[in-house]
Amino acid sequence: MSQSRKKSAAPRKIPQDLLDALLNNPYEGLILVDAQGIIRHMSSANEGIYPFTPQESVGRHIHDVSPKSRMDRTIRTGKAEIGRSMILDDKTRVVARFPLSKDGKVIGAAGKLLFMDPGKMKELYERITHLERRLEKYEDELAQIYRTNYSLDSILGDSPDIIQAKRLAEQAAGADSPVLIMGESGTGKELFAHAIHGLSQRGSGALVKVNCAAIPGELLEAELFGYEEGAFTGARKKGKAGKFELAHGGTIFLDEIGDMPLPMQIKILRVLQEREVERVGSNRPKKVDFRLICATNRDLPKLMRQGLFRQDLYYRINVMTLKLPPLRDCRDDIFPLFQHFSRILGREKTPPKILPGVKEILEKYSWPGNVRELRNVTERALIVCRDNTVSPADLPDLSQQEVLPQVIEEKASLKALMDQAEKKIIEQALVQASSRAEAARNLGIHRTGLYQKMKKHGIE
């Protein structure tokens, strides 16, 4: 008796004829794809719905048969989508998609036509269809916002330091560890972050950027972690997802992390340790899966000695380090970069002619604003030049002069000279920085103070 019980309780293999009957059920519109999205089975119930017959579809990629299919998303996220509307053969159908797993690993996905009659619940169905279309539109817009814009090929330069940085970036992309990108303002830290994300296994996910220096400290927590409805005055109805939630399955890029306030550093450290966030106004932790890339133009070891940056956070983010060289250390790259910017920024169809003397002036300058400043100088030269020809006269004054004028007018007052010097300093800071907030920080003044001085001197 006990033996028969044990025998009946043991797992039994489903007979092959039953599996064949299930897969080829004429009432069941079923599609099976493997982990690469290649169709491995399509039941006969799909006949006439797609541009290919079930037999012709097998072996093709799902997007070749159904361009708007989301089964590749199901494979990537491992999450089922049940009861979604979809336009097939000019008719709205209700479908389901779910992942197929073995030993905890997604090995494919199944798609199923539910063949519901929308006419029986017309009003509800039309509302669902409308919401689904809006959702797809927003998802497309979100993908555009958080897509990767640059690759390693976008990073120009043949100097040894740049080649070494690109090699390290490629190595960093192969792991899922945190990356810290260090370099002066304008050296291309964000480009490297994009390139690392795009090459990584998370490249199909979102790249969510946060400029820690541009967001006031009191708003940074809600921006990073999100908030619940009613968490504070002015909070959105139904709350808002934070940047860490938006980066789930992808990468979060914390730019200017050296400017993050100490209290927020503690909370970031907890997220890195626990891999979960709590929205402002909530006590329910939510698991998040992300890759971290940080960047800074600050000296973090010095900030640690000053008590302005946590040592434990530094060691958490500093697993893989990329140190980007300033442009003055890559003299041979300066003129090729100027030529490149001339081609992409020029208003004419043909590249501008560059007269002798331009190259020498560019290579003698120290470029404190690095590649960003070089791009701005190139754009200015293209605006003021004539006949699509850039001459030395079209360049701004790049001589390494003191800010104060060497020649003082006979009747110039001290106040007039100081105003002149202040205006030149502010203009230079704006050229070298990526934003007004960064320019204010580099000058050691508040943004409001910078705006007031810009207005005073008539700086746009």
TrEMBL record:
Residues 155-383 form the Sigma-54 factor interaction domain. One of its GO terms (biological process) is regulation of DNA-templated transcription. SMART domains: AAA. Pfam families: AAA_lid_14 (PF25601), HTH_8 (PF02954), Sigma54_activat (PF00158). InterPro entries: AAA+_ATPase, AAA_lid_NorR, Homeodomain-like_sf, HTH_Fis, P-loop_NTPase, PAS-like_dom_sf, Sigma_54_int, Sigma_54_int_dom_ATP-bd_1. GO terms for molecular function: ATP binding; sequence-specific DNA binding. Residues 121-148 form a coiled coil. Keywords: ATP-binding, Coiled coil, DNA-binding, Nucleotide-binding, Transcription, Transcription regulation. SUPFAM superfamilies: Homeodomain-like, P-loop containing nucleoside triphosphate hydrolases, PYP-like sensor domain (PAS domain). Transmembrane segments: none annotated. This is Sigma54 specific transcriptional regulator, Fis family. It comes from Desulfatibacillum aliphaticivorans. The lineage of its organism: Bacteria, Pseudomonadati, Thermodesulfobacteriota, Desulfobacteria, Desulfobacterales.
